[in-house]
Amino acid sequence: MPQQSSRRNALLGAAFLMATSAIGPGFLTQTATFTQKLAASFGFVILLSILLDIGAQLNIWRIIAVSEKRAQDIANEVFPYAGYFLALLIVMGGLAFNIGNVGGAGMGLNLLMGITPETGAIISGAIAIGIFLFREAGKVMDKFAQIMGFVMIALTVYVAFQANPPMGEAVARTFVPEQLDAVAIVTLVGGTVGGYITFAGAHRLLDAGIKGKDALPEVSRSSVTAILVVSVMRVVLFLAVLGVVSQGVALDKTNPAATPFQHIAGTWGLMIFGVVIWAASITSVIGAAYTSVSFISGFSPSIERNKNAWIIAFIVISTAVLATIGKPAKVLIFVGTLNGFILPIALGLILLAAHKSKIVGDYKHPVWLTVFGTIVAVSMAVLSVHVMIQNIPKLFG
């Protein structure tokens, strides 16, 4: 019985680790911005992105589980050195975005306590480090992610209810949109399962010993649960913002996601948003550090033995850069653009691995998952090239 309980907790913990890694400062900003731009039609974008997210994540989690190998080791078996290249992209993207995550946590404590964002970032970094000082850091991380996930969703549900969004229109436009935005769709998919995010839960399940063909039904459920948790938060925030913008309220350009909270409850609303963005940011800090290190730990027995120390170092570096330099805009733009390539590259390698018996044994990957995954990989690759071309002037201008 205790083993079953521990297994259930690990499955739920992996789902929430992935979900809370996705729900960061960028997630909040993107959701608010696209809601203002597309209004109720953004519901359709969310629905379509959920389907694409599930298609991408099911492929990745199932192949990692059935092969019983981390993504970088799978990639190295598909093409020589491909795993090292993938690990480099993941670590670069994870470090760059962790700087933004630490900044979001600092902003949250600034709203809550009135301290400077830099001081808030340092305190938040120390709290994240504290989790990895525990002997059972994985279990503590799982529980922390679950608690923060519930807190974020509960507070945002309250604001969405008070915002009184036009539910009839939101439901109607979710299935019959008035306008479409391809960039919004790919941005949401990339922000949910792009970069290191989708691997957070899959690698956590490996570390918890949940792997092999027999575990596939549990892994699939955990994978879909993770996407649904992200989606609940996305939908609730969408409704909160829609309720406010439908009343003619303009979002704050510097912090658009804070507007519905402030409009509904004034100063108290900003403090509620402070809790939400802190919870979103601190869990993303933890998820990015854990997953990035999981991509290099297999390359050296020393790193594997001292994994928690490396995770702590990753958080220290992210916090130090934010506190001393701030958010280096050009670096974030460059690595952010590279991050868009990670999903199609990683998913493409996983799809090739799914049909190699030396990696998956006698497992037969469903054809519909292969087709679905290919659609996601190709569409993300095309748009990433487009975004990269657009960002070249910003990098060298």
UniProtKB/TrEMBL annotation:
It is a multi-pass membrane protein. It is found in: Membrane. GO terms for molecular function: cadmium ion transmembrane transporter activity; manganese ion transmembrane transporter activity. PROSITE patterns: TAT. Keywords: Membrane, Transmembrane, Transmembrane helix. GO terms for biological process: iron ion transmembrane transport. This is Manganese transport protein MntH. The chain crosses the membrane at residues 38-60, 81-99, 111-132, 144-163, 183-206, 227-250, 270-296, 308-325, 331-354, 366-389. Its main location: membrane. It holds the Pfam family Nramp. One of its GO terms (cellular component) is plasma membrane.
